[in-house]
Amino acid sequence: MGGHDAAQGTKAAAQVLGISQHTMERYVAGTLKRPRRDLRDRIEREVKKRCQPQVRAKARKKAASTDGLVVSTRARFGFTAAAGTTDDARIRDITQALPPQWADRLFTAHEQGANEQQLQQIAADGLAQMYFRANNSRAHGLGVEFTDVERLDIEL
Questions:
Q1: CA distance 51 to 36
Q2: Structure confidence at residue 39 (pLDDT)
Q3: Residue-wise over 48-85: b if at least 16 C-beta within 10 A, else e?
Q4: How far apart are CA 66 and CA 63, in angstroms?
Q5: Handedness of CA 84, 87, 92, 94 (dihedral sign)
Q6: What's the pLDDT tens digit per position in 98-146?
Q7: Contacts 24+ apart (CB under 8 A), 127-135
Q8: Mean pLDDT of 58-68
Q9: Residue 29 has what DSSP assignment?
Q10: How far is CA 31 from CA 25, 27, 44, 142, in A?
């Protein structure tokens, strides 16, 4: 943020909170170490209300258009092919970058109310394509089963 934008932001936030712009600037700069508890709580609420949707939207746009995301998981993976199961499912730790289209699919599904299992399936499909089938350059037709998820972290 440029200086003018920052000043506008602190002025607007100060007005909402009913405090002086100077007090707000001291809080943002870290020189006001311990504001009154009620003020601190109101500041945190207002900051979350104003900043988070914009931060999330910006991160989402970047992930869905240029950066993609990283999926890190510990789960049971098994494989199926046309002739049936190709190996026994086993627990694996996998960290894999997924390209922007997978980020877009996850965000879109989340916005449309997908449940945890549906989101995990999208992540699993992304891992199947990028990790197990090397972006579909090998192991064509290999299906990946993703169960017993111990953890699933998605980083932008």
A1: 22
A2: 72
A3: eeeeeeeeeeeebeebbeeebbebebebebebeeeeee
A4: 6
A5: negative
A6: 999 998 999 889 889 998 888 888 988 898 888 888 877 777 777 777 7
A7: 127/71, 127/73, 127/94, 127/96, 127/98, 130/96, 130/97, 130/98, 130/99, 130/102, 131/94, 131/96, 132/77, 132/79
A8: 80
A9: H
A10: 9, 6, 16, 58
- Strand, helix or coil for residue 102: helix
Tokens 């980020």 map to which residue?
Answer: 103
Q: Which residue has the tokens 């090998």?
A: 138
Residue type, 139: A
Contacts of 113 (CB under 8 A, 6+ apart): none
Give me 30's structure tokens.
């870290």
Structure tokens at 112: 């449309």
Q: How far apart are the first and last CA of the chain?
A: 21
Six-digit token string for 1: 């943020």
